[in-house]
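Dear colleagues,

As part of the handover before I leave the project, I'm documenting each prediction I ran so the next person doesn't have to rerun anything. This entry is a single chain, and its sequence is reproduced below.
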Amino acid sequence: MIRKLEIYQDPEPVRAAVAAVTPLFGTDNVISVTSRRGAEQPLHDHIGWLPEGVRERDFTVINPEFRGTIIEALLERLPFAFGRTRIMRMPKKSCLSIHWDTSLRYHYAVVTNPACYLVHLDGENGRFHHIPADGFLYEMDARLTHTAINASRHERIHLVICDARDEGLKDGRPAEHAELLPSR
């Protein structure tokens, strides 16, 4: 589910860029780095699940707050086409719902600690993966049923980049987990 890539970016300038936009976080704890053309609220353009007909690849505009930053430089040198990109803050002692997505995701840990995990369901068991804040990008097959857990007393912040090559899949989760989520 998780694979370390050979794409490295010094973490200090990324942390500084994220710290500069921290006041833009709302109660949803997500800031959109990219948005769709003409979005009414570019910094919060579909920060959660995408509605029918919207694809990861539709997020082609790098928002002004990120132009000329190390985050834009990282996106521009990726060896794949990026789509929806967000800075996602996970509060201390929290967990996301179990879900699946329609594309590969790339995680760059900005702030984390050993009690933060991505968990993918494998049969009746969960496989725990920690992404360190080591400056490397990690590929995640988010089409598998998964969740994220922050079991620490500190917030976790990841830059999450969606692969623009999504195919708008309807159901990428394993059949044995079909009962976990209603159809979208």
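DSSP finds two helices and twelve strands in the chain. Residues 11-21 form the longest helix (11 residues).

All the best with the project,
I.
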